[in-house]
Design the sequence.
């Protein structure tokens, strides 16, 4: 069985890498169905096993790479490139902030039903009634949307899905 897995390690790496490549490009450019998100995440996790098997099978030749500068440089550049994504982006006024989409979600979470109502072209009463119909029992005019979700035992994601469907 181990021999069979070792024989397929490199072909599986190739196939799964190509799937990751295509799904990653589609995600980057916002093309195609949302299935690309699941494909990219899950099959990248599956890629770990053939990668480990490939390393195991080719360990001696791999160690030769670690004795030369190109591997150290490539690994250092890869680490630096990934660390750049952990640097918070400023909002232009010297303050550090979240990515724009996260900042918008935080604004929605902090808003009251009346503010959401004006955004979606409904009355405050319609928004509260809609939320209660969707299982947000704590919906009330004096509460923030995030508080309504939390007090109703729902997630912010649940809240955003329903708020998005409020538009006329």
Sequence:
């Amino acid at each position: 069985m181990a021999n069979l897995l070792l024989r397929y390690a490199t072909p599986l790496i190739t196939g799964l890498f190509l799937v990751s490549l295509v799904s990653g490009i589609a995600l980057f450019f916002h093309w195609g169905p949302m299935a690309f998100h699941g494909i990219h995440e899950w099959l990248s996790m599956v890629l770990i096993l053939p990668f480990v098997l490939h390393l195991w099978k080719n360990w001696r030749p791999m160690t030769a790479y670690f004795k030369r500068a190109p591997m150290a440089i490539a690994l250092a550049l890869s680490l630096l490139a990934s660390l750049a994504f952990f640097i918070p982006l400023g909002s232009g006024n010297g303050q550090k902030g979240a990515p724009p989409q996260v900042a918008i979600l935080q604004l929605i979470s902090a808003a009251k039903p009346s503010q959401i109502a004006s955004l979606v072209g409904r009355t405050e009463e319609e928004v509260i009634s809609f939320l209660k119909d969707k299982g947000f029992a704590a919906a009330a005019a004096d509460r923030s949307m995030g508080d309504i979700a939390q007090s109703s035992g729902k997630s912010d994601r649940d809240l955003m899905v329903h708020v998005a469907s409020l538009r006329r």
Observations:
- The two ends are 58 Å apart (CA to CA).
